[in-house]
From TrEMBL:
Keywords: Carbohydrate metabolism, Magnesium, Metal-binding. PANTHER family: 6-PHOSPHOGLUCONATE PHOSPHATASE (PTHR46193), HEXITOL PHOSPHATASE B (PTHR46193:SF18). This is HAD family phosphatase. Coiled coil: none annotated.
Length: 223
């Protein structure tokens, strides 16, 4: 039985991966170590501490992980505030269709300050029963921790949850948590392998409540 729907945020609610790529490339350029977008695509879905720990080690960067994150986060918040971005097409309608009948969570690897800035900018925060950052659990995606914690706070068993993700790491986290996962093919999220998803869509508008009601029982039957 499907009782809870959990959203990723970046690349799902807001088309923000181009912003993340842009700022992260700017930061690396400023540190004297240019990095290609294609390399950054491997980190989509990870938390900032996890990503920057790996990049700092790989390139021997002098600033601390904390200093790098502060620099890029402040820049991202400034870009977000100045932008005229809107939610990805179909997101507002999907939230409206779920609201009142299903528990709704958001599980994003972004820092909480960025999550709240996005949701407040779009006026979407009231739709969510629970919001969590990957930096608030022991292990970020692709580990299942963030999704298991979200299900717990929503009062739902993992098998009752449907997750919407756009990244390989996010899909891996949802499936490791024992949840049904919809993979959203967002070209701006880079080359992401969504093949482990239970259902892959090219548009959020494909996701309708009546289809979701059938998705979980069919996934359980095929298990």
């Amino acid at each position: 039985m499907f009782t809870a729907f959990i959203f990723d945020m970046d690349g799902v609610i807001i088309d923000s991966e181009p912003l993340h790529f842009k700022v992260d490339m700017e930061v690396m350029e400023g540190l004297g170590v240019p990095i290609a977008k294609e390399e950054l695509e491997a980190y989509v879905g990870m938390t900032n501490p996890e990503m920057w720990t790996r990049i700092r080690l790989k390139y021997g960067l002098a600033p601390s992980v904390e200093d790098i994150i502060e620099l890029q986060l402040n820049r991202k918040l400034s870009y977000l505030e100045a932008s005229d971005d809107r939610p990805i097409e179909g997101i507002a309608e999907l939230l409206h269709s779920l609201h009142g009948s299903k528990r709704i969570g958001l599980a994003s690897s972004s820092p909480r300050v960025f999550i709240e800035a996005v949701l407040n900018k779009f006026g979407l925060l009231p739709y969510f029963d629970f919001v969590i950052s990957g930096e608030e659990v022991d292990r970020g995606k692709p580990a299942p921790d963030i999704y298991l914690k979200t299900a717990e706070m929503l009062g739902a068993a993992p098998g009752q949850c449907i997750v919407l993700e756009d990244s390989r790491n996010g899909v891996a986290a949802a499936k490791a948590a024992g949840m049904t996962c919809i993979g959203f093919q967002n070209a701006n999220s880079g080359d992401q392998d969504l093949s482990k998803s239970d259902w892959i869509v090219g548009s959020i508008r494909e996701i309708r409540l009546e289809k979701l009601e059938r998705l979980v029982p069919s996934a359980e039957a095929g298990a």
